[in-house]
Specification:
With 274 residues, the chain is of the alpha+beta class. The chain has helices at residues 17-33, 64-76, 161-169, 183-201, 250-259, and strands at residues 3-10, 36-40, 79-81, 85-88, 95-102, 108-113, 119-122, 126-129, 142-145, 148-152, 174-176, 204-207, 211-213, 219-221, 225-227, 233-236, 242-249. The radius of gyration is 18 Å and the shape is globular.
């Protein structure tokens, strides 16, 4: 399919899984009713709560969330990226942050485990150790579908351009970035990074984000967006929960890549001596 509508869903997810699922089901339905063939949810869309409660919400892949989201994808005959969930690892204390792509028959087409984890220690200011509760993935994941080849990633990955270049080299035309970008870094970097990754890789980029106060006490930035291969923001969500759609035109993507052939002009080079 060379032309179709895609949607990003902006949510404020919390610790009530049933409420999150109901809200996601409604917003997915809105997107499908408006004609979306591809719908992407934000990071941790179906459960997001206190750190002490996380382990009770670890689950396998496939499992309850992929089953529920697969049923929605099949009901609406859409491709659906469920955002991410906390994937159980052998009953251990840490989980993968995993995003999954579901097909219009409800089948699990691909899963990607977030590679880059946010660890920072600024004495007297902030200490964040995502690696204390998460295990990083180690595989670049793309999925070939009738809508094009999709590259899967999660949130903080957005700051690491080499991941997206490897996806583009593997044929990715759409980069999916379900996120929970916070307000301070989001206001400074979110749009710049989204547009840069789209421009560098001459790909569409779909970046749904969480919005509003989070269960962890900070504000998420919202501004979910769709960026085209030239770097234009062709869809942006307003404040609050909602859905934004934009047309995906793969003929346009191929034209951008033909007229400015930067992906074909990439050269390898030797690193500097130590």
């Amino acid at each position: 399919m060379d032309r179709y509508l895609a949607a990003v869903v902006q949510m404020r997810s919390g610790p009530d899984r049933a409420a999150n699922l109901a809200r996601a089901e409604h917003l997915i339905g809105v997107a499908a009713t408006r004609g979306a063939a591809l719908v992407v949810l934000p990071e941790v869309a179906t459960w997001r709560g206190p750190r002490d409660d996380e382990r009770a919400h670890f689950e396998p892949v496939p499992g309850p969330t992929t089953d529920a989201m697969g049923a929605l994808a099949a009901r609406h005959r859409i491709h659906l990226c469920l955002g991410s969930l906390l994937e159980r690892i052998d009953d251990g204390p840490r989980a993968h942050n995993t995003t999954c792509l579901l097909g219009p028959d409800g089948a699990l087409l691909a899963s990607y485990r977030k590679i880059h984890l946010f660890d920072v220690d600024l004495p007297g200011r902030v200490v964040v150790r995502e690696s204390a509760t998460r295990v990083p993935g180690d595989a670049v994941v793309t999925a070939t579908t009738p809508l094009g080849t999709l590259g899967l990633s999660v949130c903080y990955d957005l700051r690491f351009p080499e991941l997206y270049r490897r996806q583009a080299t593997a044929g990715a035309e759409l980069l999916l970035v379900p996120s929970a970008f916070t307000f301070p870094t989001g206001s400074a970097h979110w749009e710049v990074l989204c547009r840069a990754r789209a421009i560098e890789n001459q790909s569409y980029l779909l970046a749904p984000n969480q919005t509003g106060p989070s269960p962890h006490g900070f504000a998420d930035y919202g501004n979910s967006m769709i960026v085209d291969p030239w770097g234009a923001v062709v869809g942006r969500a307003p404040e609050g929960e909602g859905v934004v759609l934009a047309e995906i035109d793969r003929d346009y993507l191929r034209r951008v890549r033909a007229e400015l052939p930067s992906l074909r002009n990439v050269r390898s080079f030797r690193p500097p001596p130590p």
